[in-house]
Amino acid sequence: MTTDPARPFGRVLTAMVTPLAEDGSIDLSGAQQLAAHLVDRGGNDGLVVFGTTGESPTMSDAEQHAVLEVVLDAVGDRATVVAGVGTNDTAHSIDKARSAERLGAHGLLVVTPYYNRPPQAGLLRHFTSIADSTDLPVMLYDIPVRTGLPIEVETLVRAAEHPRIVAVKDAKGNLGDLAWTLARTDLAYYSGEDMLNLPILALGGVGVVSVVSHLVGPRLAELVAAVEAGDLATARSINESLLPVYTGIFRTQGVILTKAALRELGLPAGPVRPPLVDATPEQIAQLRADLAAGGVHL
Q: Residues that bind pyruvate, according to the entry (predicted)?
């Protein structure tokens, strides 16, 4: 687990898929196996359980509880395990946060409330109420393409005054806002959009919460280390080598092709849950070509 206060959750974290059995039920053994693989051989020093890629909207609280429990059992002694607890209901999110704390999670990921589109004052109250409910550090998740609502810089500045709101997973794609927030707060920024890993790190980000790290975690660790060392030539070279992987995994919804890749590699994944649909043979063929161009051979 991380002990660096500048990187409260580590350097490279995978937004882990939730392995399912062929009948759509949770594969708890598979979750343990995948978590151990990502940490012990996959270059990750942390995992996010039940973020977007974990298909959290279609998983019950009981299922999320069970998966978090087995992942903590598998890797909680050697990796930072962050529980996704954000919903568009503050009371429900608080319940999930308290449950995650009781199970032993090391931190919380709290996404912007979606669909109900609260004003910025509502966002601030939502985030601080969840942060007040446990003693765990909180990473806010700013992803307006999914939530319909960005977290504005002023809201982030005010949220950063809370002692337990310590980080942001940024998938907003607004590098100007990111730069201003870094200039005005001590929030630790994690790239939440793989195509922007390098620019976010170059602006002062401390790590990544990645989807492609299911496949290329060690190379992302090298990317973070190169930026940290000021070796931007090496960082650019690593980033360019990863471009086909970034593009390939996100030709459709990321979890669909990530699970397809993991299945091809013989790792636990299983199908996706509706309304998502599994990759077609044509999509898998394209994925093979994309990943091969990026040095990953299925």
A: 53, 209
The CATH number assigned to the domain holding 181 equals 3.20.20.70
Q: Is the pTM of this model over 0.90?
A: yes
d(CA 84, CA 141): 10
18 known member of a binding site = no
Domains identified in the chain, total number? 1
The label of the residue with tokens 């310590």 reads: 166
Q: Kindly give the confidence (pLDDT) of every residue in the chain, 298 residues in length, as a single tens digit, with 9 standing for 90 and above.
A: 656 878 999 999 999 999 999 999 999 999 999 999 999 999 999 999 999 999 999 999 999 999 999 999 999 999 999 999 999 999 999 999 999 999 999 999 999 999 999 999 999 999 999 999 999 999 999 999 999 999 999 999 999 999 999 999 999 999 999 999 999 999 999 999 999 999 999 999 999 999 999 999 999 999 999 999 999 999 999 999 999 999 999 999 999 999 999 999 999 999 999 999 999 999 999 999 999 999 999 9
Residue 119 φ/ψ, nearest 5 degrees: -70, 170
Please list the active-site residues.
Answer: 141, 169
> Containing H/E element for 250?
none
